[in-house]
Design a protein that fits this description.
Porin, 12 strands, mainly beta
Length: 242
């Protein structure tokens, strides 16, 4: 669900790569200005009563150089029913299952408009094992009227051996000083012990950015192995130059 926050990059919330006459000659130079960013997020997913969950938390990012940043994330999960792509837990349970996630890592920005985050950490609570995550977001044709974003995430949960991923392709439909609208399609897929085959679900999505308040709202609905599903996510970004 964290892939939803990639939309905030449109508002200049993700540090941009500084161009130079000799590419990467300033790789080890301190970013100028350095930037501290905080993104708060919350999301929910439901799949025809086979998987219902909510997820919320915040992410901190501190730039180090024009190409590297530090990332820390604290989040909480509530799984009310079933198993899905974002769950490290196996089997159904009669009660809601709750766990937190503590992760940290690096954000690599090799070219303008592209970010690759590598994170590792552990769950606490009903799930209490390690997990790994990689997040890729890349904007293409940034200077055109309708830039295109491609995003890909991958997770591995050591608690149940599940590996999952998400993919999205979207473009800017319309943009003004107040709002930016995005449209596209994406979905989730996952596999691991206990799954009969690769499980997948895909559908169209719609996003809106409220530029003044740096708020992103994202909706997706579609169909897959768990039947019809829907997701909603909201995020709010804050940043400070240092």
């Amino acid at each position: 669900m964290m892939r939803r926050t990639l939309l905030l990059a449109l508002l200049g919330m993700m540090p941009a790569v500084v161009a130079s006459a000799a590419p990467y000659s300033d790789f080890f130079n301190a970013a100028n200005p350095e930037q501290l960013g905080v993104t708060m997020f919350a999301s929910a997913i439901a799949a025809q009563h086979k998987y219902v969950a909510t997820h919320e938390g915040f992410e901190l990012e501190q730039t180090l150089t024009p190409y590297v940043g530090l990332v820390g994330r604290v989040s909480g999960y509530q799984i009310y029913e079933g198993d899905g792509w974002d769950s490290p837990l196996a089997g159904h349970n009669s009660r809601p299952r709750n766990f937190g996630v503590l992760m940290a890592g690096l954000d690599l920005m090799p070219i303008q408009g592209t970010s690759f985050k590598m994170l590792g950490g552990s769950d606490v609570g009903d799930s209490d094992r390690a997990r790994l995550e990689g997040d890729l977001s890349s904007w293409l044709w940034l200077h055109s009227r309708h830039p295109v974003n491609f995003s890909l995430t991958g997770d591995h949960f050591y608690n149940n051996g599940l590996s999952s991923g998400t993919v999205d392709l979207r473009t800017i439909l319309d943009s003004s000083r107040e709002m930016t609208w995005l449209i596209g399609a994406g979905g989730q897929l996952w596999d691991g012990p206990g799954e009969p085959h690769l499980i997948k679900e895909f559908g169209p999505d719609l996003g809106v950015l409220i530029r003044r308040w740096k708020i992103g709202i994202d909706l997706q609905a579609g169909y897959g192995n768990l039947g019809g599903y829907g997701t909603v996510a909201i995020s709010r970004h804050f940043s400070w130059d240092e």
